[in-house]
Amino acid sequence: MEAAESPSELIRQANSAFVSEDYAEAAELYTKAIQIDDSKSEYYVNRAHALQKLERYTESKADAQKAIDLNPSDPKAYLRKGIACFHLQQYEEAQEAFQSSSTHGGNDAGIRQWLTWTEEKLLRSKKTPVTIKHDWYQTESHVCVTVLAKNLSPDSVSVQFAPSTMMMKAKLPDGTDYELNLNLSFPIVPEQSSYTVMKTKVEIKMKKCDGIRWSSLEGQAPVNVKQIPVAIPELSAQPPVYPSSSAKKKNWDKIESEIKKEEAEEKPEGEAALNQLFQKIYGEGSDEIRRAMNKSFQESGGTVLSTNWNEVSKDKVTVKPPDGVEFKKWDE
């Protein structure tokens, strides 16, 4: 039976592979040595170095930290951690690791160079904070917000939906926090809203409560405000009588009541009557009726007004001008 290779022999082979620039083979051999003896900090330092050559910086940082745990005074372990953090854009942690490496007797020239690069990155990040842009578009049923943030981990992103608000939080690759809060123009359905984290962006999809077209993403939606009459305490049992040069006194409350009665009984005619009818149907109609009226009126250029959602939802409503009239676009 062939004897298993010793950790020292595996390390020798790994070092040889590293010198030959076969970093994957070197990392594998370092791993085999660690599986036999995981108490040597230098094994983890060597594998961290090989992993950095393979640009596997997260794993390299973990190995460097393990080496520090085993030997807190190893300057090479701090150096490897600093380099890994630098490439992960974790500059504050990198700076701390390089300073620790120098404190424990690391190569002063090399450490100073890494510290200089790290300090430049920190200064630049403070002067030019990352600006994350977002945009939005809408369909008949949804409003979609696109947040142009790259390389986000799905675990670092959270989105909370409420009927009138949306809040997104994320941890950016450089370690900074990002937050987007929107006070929506119109209500949404939170339980039917969702988001997707992609490589170059975050796509947030919100379900509209009503199939209406939003004029803006944020702000207060236009509403029909009705004034509520305020009760005025009765000061006298007698109707108000105002000063007048006329010898005959007038009951102004009675006159006002008669005017209001006449206005209520007055029936509009022609186009005014038609508009009043449409307003009544829209105001008292269901959501489907309002959607049908909006869709048919907009798509037909104002020539069709339908209340049948089942009919108009199937296809685009065509223009139907009155008889004897030819429909033309404004630029024709």
From TrEMBL:
PROSITE patterns per record: CS, SGS, TPR
Record's keyword terms, sorted: TPR repeat
Recorded superkingdom: Eukaryota
Keyword Disulfide bond: no
InterPro entries: CS_dom, HSP20-like_chaperone, SGS_dom, Sgt1-like, TPR-like_helical_dom_sf, TPR_rpt
Keyword Cell membrane: no
Cellular component terms (Gene Ontology): cytoplasm
Family: Belongs to the SGT1 family.
Name the UniProt record assigns to this protein: Protein SGT1
Species per Swiss-Prot/TrEMBL record: Daphnia magna
Classification lineage: Eukaryota, Metazoa, Ecdysozoa, Arthropoda, Crustacea
